[in-house]
Amino acid sequence: MAKPSITEAPGIYTMEWAEDRIKIVASKVRQHRDGRVTGEITVTTTAVNYHSHLHQAQFNFSSTQARTSLAKVMLSKYPDANWSNLLEQLCFYVLGWVRQGEPVQELCADDDFKPPEYLLYPIILKDEPTIIFGEGESAKSLIALLLGICVELPWTDNPFKLKPLATTSRALYLDWETSRAEIGWRLKCFQNGLGLPSLFINYRRCALPLADDMEQIHEMIQQTHSNFLIVDSIAAASGGDINSAEVALRFFAALRQLKITSLLIAHTAKNLDGKHQTVYGSAFYHNSARSVWLVKRVSETDENEISVGLFHKKHNNSQGFKPIGFKMIFNEHQTMVELQDVKQVGEFLQETSLPTRILELLKNGAAPTAEIAEALEAGKESTRATLNRMKQRSQVVKVGNDWGLTYSD
Fold first, then answer.
1. What percent of the chain has pLDDT over 90?
2. What separation in angstroms does the CA of 289 have from each of 53, 131, 242, 361?
3. Whole-angstrom Cα distance, residue 174 to residue 95?
4. Backbone torsion region of residue 403, taken as left when φ is above 0, otherwise alpha when ψ lies between -120 and 50, otherwise beta
5. Beta strands of 32-86 (E only): which ranges?
6. Which tens digit of pLDDT belongs to each residue from 249-281?
């Protein structure tokens, strides 16, 4: 039995039998909890006197009955091949790929390993998924597009103190939320407001869940030479109930197969107390991302300015980074952006570290531990411990029962 030629891409396997003039493409391949492996197969031929397209349908690669039934169907359409053998080979290789996974590799500490790289320091980790999340209308998509501009140009001398790679990184904006016209208009307003040269970004409007659209997305990544995905947003891109662990894990399994840097936009869980905000949906969204940033927005109803703060909530491969603040000014055809100190925006202080909040509070005058803890809604013991650590770093000084600053800011 002649072996086929085989090519593999994320979520898609192609097998060709030259002697039989048959090609079978297996796509949307998925392993279920009960062990079944299903997907879609497309069968074509290059033989003369036959239509090139022979068959396309869902298929259970784990089922002997499915192979037997399909072999009979295919024999009636194309009798010049041993379909039992071809389908047996197809199932053998597909099941092997799915269940074996990637091979074991030996790691040696003496090898030339390097610390994690950033596509855009300190926000976007290279070759890893990063999440930015926030409430509705918190400017998440605007921030994602601004970050995409920084890596696409690359804008190495940007005023936001963000550090992209020296070489351009092609971004592909996968949009489940808005439209080409809206993203294009935002891009134009950024270009006008920031005084930038012509801006280009690859864009695709999406409808299917990412895991069900893998082969098309992978093909587009190859065609556009993209090495950076913006996913707007996780809820729509996941499909199904995003509170389900299975849905979340399937989304990240598909994303992992693409082997590409990604910035994922998500919404905020509706916590009853409004504190300790997390990504909406299964905990596996937060857990599977390598870095997570909360986006918060403050604006006046009649103003054309907003303040946006980014707060680092998870950091697998680095230390936690300080908050980053932006001021966005919207004119008719322009969006201007400036770096902003988050400590100057009162609504952002609750998201900053306890030492930062203590320093800001003590600018109004010295105070005892209990008063500081009450004002900051922090535990008295944690406040006392933090103050003592700050004293060791010469940030505060204790006089009597009161704590005060050791310097003026």
1. 62
2. 41, 6, 15, 34
3. 30
4. beta
5. 37-45, 53-60
6. 999 999 998 999 999 999 998 764 555 788 999
* Per-residue tokens: 296: 């918060």
Reported pTM: 0.80
Give the chain's length.
409
Please give the structure tokens belonging to residue 217: 């997305």
Peptide bond before residue 115 is cis, with ω within 30 degrees of 0 = no
Question: Of 202, 197, 254, which Cα lies nearest the Cα of 228?
Answer: 202
Average pLDDT over residues 346-362: 78
Report the distance separating Cα 201 and Cα 276, nearest Å: 34
Query: Interior CA angle at 219 toward 156 and 198, to 5°?
Result: 35
244 in Cβ contact with 275 (< 8 Å): no
CB atoms within 10 A of CB 393: 9
Determine the 3-state secondary structure of 115 from DSSP.
Answer: coil
One-letter amino acid of 214 = M
Residue 107 sits at φ, ψ, to 5 deg, of -105, 140
* Beta-sheet pairing, 171-175 with 202-205: parallel
Main-chain dihedrals φ then ψ at residue 30, nearest 5 degrees = -145, 135
Cis-peptide into 122, omega within 30 deg: yes
Please give the pLDDT value at position 409. Answer: 47
Considering Cα of 120, then 122, then 125, then 129, what sign does the dihedral take? Answer: negative
* Cβ atoms of residues 247 and 241 within 8 Å: yes
Among 326, 325, 320, residue whose Cα is nearest residue 354: 320
The rounded distance, in Å, linking the Cα atoms of 118 and 152 is 14
How far is it, in rounded angstroms, from Cα 370 to Cα 165? 47
SS3 of 257-284: the string is HHCCEEEEEEEECCCCCCCCCCECCCHH
Residue 388 DSSP code: H
Rounded to whole angstroms, how far apart are CA atoms 30 and 254? 10
3-state secondary structure at position 240: coil
Q: Which residues lie below 8 Å from residue 68, measured CB to CB, with a gap of 6+?
A: 84
284 contacts: CB under 8 Å, gap ≥ 6:
245, 248, 249, 252
Q: What's the rounded Cα separation, in Å, for the pair 321 and 342? A: 13
Express each pLDDT in 165-174 by its tens digit.
999 899 999 9
Residue 114 has pLDDT above 60, yes or no: yes
